[in-house]
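[09:14] KT: can someone run the structure on this one? pasting the chain below
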Amino acid sequence: MREPTTPLRIKAFVGAGVVVFVVAVAIVAAAVAWNARKVALNDSEAQATRFVAGAEAALNRSLLTVDVLLASMDELLNLSNMTAPWIDAESASQRLRGSTRQNLMVRYVALLDDSGKTMASSDPAGGALAVQLPAGFLESVLEQPVSTLMVSAPVVSFASSERVLYFARHLRLADSTRVAAVAELPVGALGAVLLQGVDISGLQVTLERAGGQLLLGVPGREEVIAPTLAPPLAELADLGLEWRAPARLTGAPALVVFRPILYQDLRISASIPLHEALSSWRDQRDAIGLTALVFVAMILAAGGLAFRYLDRLSQARVAIAQSKATLDQALESMVSGFLLLDKNNCVVQWNSQFEVIFPWLKGIVAPRLPFRTVIEETVKHHHPRLADDEHARWVDQRLLRQQQPQHEPHEQVYSNGRTIQITERTTPDGGLVISYHDVTALRRASAEIENLAFYDPLTNLPNRRLLMDRMQQAIASSARSGQYGALLFLDLDHFKTLNDTRGHEVGDMLLRQVAQRLKTCVRREDTVARLGGDEFVVMLGDLSASSEEAGAYVRRVGEKILRKLNVPYTLGGHAHHSTPSIGATLMGGAIQSSVDLLKQADIAMYQVKSQGRNALCFFDPQMQIAISLRAQLEADLQAALTARQFVLHYQPQFHLDGRMVGAEALIRWQHPERGLVAPGAFIGVAEESELIVPMGHWVLRTACEQLAAWQGNPRMQHLQLSVNVSARQFRQRDFVARVVEVLRETGARPHLLKLELTESLVLDNVEDTIAKIGTLKTKGVRFSVDDFGTGYSSLAYLTRLPLDQLKIDQSFVHNLGMRHTDDVIVQTILGMARNLELDVIAEGVETEAQKKLLAQYGCTYFQGYLMGRPVPVAELEALLEPVTTTAEDLDLPG
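[09:31] RB: done, structure tokens below
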């Protein structure tokens, strides 16, 4: 007989599979290596971008402190009231030392006259200090039309032999003589500010002018004269973020990221050479290649084993075909256990599933074995401690039931927890066919379904459905017995923060531990339920017939829960402290629905939240009254929108020369009963209820309709209207589309519409802000930052935001001439706006003195009660009655 062999087509298929897998491994290895290279470059690119952004913010803050230090010398030395001969060098130097001592970056500050002579300094040498400024630097500082911070080229200090930079701005004496306030900063100190402790392999950092003059380089360069780097950074902007730009210090292929800072034409750049960026990737590439070779070897080995396996499989197939038995195949295909008995109750045939269900019979069951022996072995296995007489009685009962076969299946639950469904059928010759079907999983699934319907799967506590059912029973029982019960509504404080920072798995661990602790705080007959999320409810029943006694008991239970839940938890090996807020209400005294009781406990819980959390509070009807009043106000606002009860008042905005250039649209509520309502009484509720979005859209449309109405009036057609935009309205996905739609439908000219955004709104999701502002700017819409100056965090983004105007916050305007720091801040904002080519308008101008100071500092646009209060549109138009010029004759802002 010829030995069977594997068909050639199968071997060819296996061989082709080996080749395909080898090729696939090679392709995947190459793709992984290439992707790792891209990831390495992207990581380096992200590092460079983050570094430059951080360096820019750090340097801006540092230079701003130097600028404020120099600007404050006027007030410190009272220069505006003195002439050069009156300045006492020793006294002035002593004051400068005290002022400079807090700025660790500044080596010294000095006051120089127009010939370069030191009038006073914070240096121990005082007025005798010899300041060696670069040639022409002093003249350029004194020649500036407006006092502005100037930065010199790097030079070597004769005193310390280290490279330094000089920062200066001119100040005026009482006789209008200009003097220079100068600060010397070591280049090394600025280098530390730029690097911020960042460790990026191969990083090259420069501070340079737009023309390429190098002021600071890290790693340091030792040139005596500051070199000019080529090409200038402006030419690199055309390349974008590409790895083919020359590094600023070495010229090697690199990624160069740069950004401008606030002062003059200075730029910060970071260069990461391509060779350094790919240093770690080369190790990955080698490891990937080695791994690929190992996989290829494994695939080839598996192919060889497959050929051997196929040969053996072919031989086995022939043997199986020769020994195949139809009856065995039929029996083995059954999912149930099968046992065939003859008329004498002896075993004839069985299948392997029978031995799977009853593994203790494996090796015992055999042809001609009496079925009584099978039953006896089963009883011994499940009930080994039964007495002999009990054992025999159990077997006799089983055999007696077998003599009366039932057509309906019956179930037997064994001591190991398994449930077996048994079906018995007689055969024509008097025998018996018994089938055994394991329904354990089915019964467990049924029990689990029932459990899921009434219990929380995470904590195994009753869920909302079961709680509501028990509450109905408790309410009915309380009505019959007169006994008070209580509900405690618990919410875990700051649970969302835990979920967001450490993941939902850790949050689930906390919920399970809270459930266990809650159960230890109550009686067995009480109910602890989980409503969902981090909300739990404790229901106490049959407390007392006295509401005072019941309330006292509830308070003791609540305080016990607070103590238990304040004990730190162990979550994933880490300690975590969590606290609950608990609201309580009594059940009894009157028939109440379970929904109302839950609502009362929930309101009491939120009262705890508003008062600081981690406490217990009983429901007070006044809470419901406050919530109802707030809900009524929200409903009134909704009705006001529908009934068109809102009106716009306009506060005029003026140019320095007295021309009205625009107005700010401000919403007012013309209530039918309360009269004219100021926005402070309803804007907060509108923002929390999201009514601020349709209200803001109404303001925008009404303002645009007014602009369109003015287009035919030569006296009014030049006026701009400023409209405040809330954060919730601006973050709507369709905000840009709705603004464009309103402009199109009303016919208003876009360049006369100015949208005012707050600083916090601008800084929240800067990329989205830039995209939306940029899109609307292409349509002609102008943008202003409202209340600017309340925080310096936004300065780093001014160069990226396509703004038109900054609005100085009225808090700074109010203190002008009274608090020097506010004067410096206003001057700084105006100087920065000039450098960034932005208009500036001051709001809250109430006195002529404030307006005069603002004009002196360079502000040309004003808004406030001094010029006009918010008025209806008719009164605003009346202000322009005498005006006869046209829009073309007026110089509109920027």
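[09:33] KT: thanks! Residues 883-894 have pLDDT under 50 and may be disordered.
[09:34] RB: yep, looked fine to me
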